[in-house]
Amino acid sequence: MLTSRERLLLTLAGKIADRVPVSPFVQEQYLSWYYPGRAKVDRVVDAVELANELDFDLMAKHLKFLRPHFFRKSYPNWEVRTRESSDGRITHYRLEIVTPRRTLFEEEAVEEAGVATAGVMRVTTKHLLETREEVEIFLEYLPALDDAGRAVMREVVAEWRRIVGDRGVLAPFGFAGVFNFAAGLRGVETLFMAPSEDEPAYREFMSRIAGAQCEYSLALAEAGADCIGIQGHMANAGTVSSAFFREFVQEYEKQVIEAIHTGGAYSIYHNCGRAKRLYPNYREMGMSLWETVSEPPAGDNQLAEAKAALGDKICLLGNLDQIHFLKTASPAEVADRARQIMAVGKPGGRYIFAASDFLETGTPRENVVAMIEAARQESSY
User: Fold this and answer.
1) Domain-located, residue 110
2) pLDDT confidence tier of residue 176, bands split at 50, 70 and 90
3) Which site from 13, 170, 186, 282 is most exposed, i.e. has the minimal number of CB atoms within 10 Å?
4) What is the per-residue burial (b if ≥16 Cβ within 10 Å, else e) of 145-162?
5) So what's the pLDDT on residue 120?
């Protein structure tokens, strides 16, 4: 019998393992709910504990490297200042980048959720780059990843590898995808309009962001990460056409995917919603794995259709509705649905069983156990 690590790596490589990996995504919200009373929870340490208890194949999707190096520390002509405040309900964050020309600043907020707050995505209330001048300043002084940053990656990844062992693979997120990160800097509406307002400026901006992400992702892969996550849910099939995606998004995302592969890691492209009309684009991009195959109403995908369109080239992950069904159905109903999904996903390989996103707070343990056990019963090739 293969270890979880061997099973996942073979599947990601497009080979047939002993069985389909069963790999629910667990993060801070579920971990803090499952382990009440803990002062903090971690997507590696506590996820390994949960995977050992429930016996599943872990893909440890840590967020430590989601925030890029140039937002975490200062460089020449690039001084980073951060401030945090809370009113007991909302935590506010302010990031300032002091350059020789002017100070750029960004403001974010997040609703506090106790221990789980670390896993809640922040809402941007003031974007870093709202004017053309701010974009120019950002690009002029944007610092490259230095040797100290690479050393941190190697040290952290080595410790994660020690903790995870054969229980699974390391799949940390890099700093988003190119379009997602650029939208975070400028605002998604602004970025959607940018190609029509000034296409050369848009392409220069996106090329520079892509270059920074390629450098960062390559270093993270060379540090020993098995997989690297790319957030690609903003330019999804509900917001853009296949033609727009191909013209203004795809080439930049593909550069990051290729950098990850050059470093010897697998690429995980995350779009947990609408994706159906982007299937041809995804084939052209060539990511190792697309997550997640989310069905209506959260997404517009059917696993059988996704397998037919992508399954000969791209590994697929997901499909069980964790928002409503997994939380409210009976264990028997969950088991039946898990077996149905496995029967569709298993043929031909390149499939990892999971819910359509992370396990939700309040999901009954007996339902999670029923899902994992039923999926495993039907997973052998």
Assistant:
1) no
2) confident
3) 13
4) beeebbebbeebbeebbe
5) 77
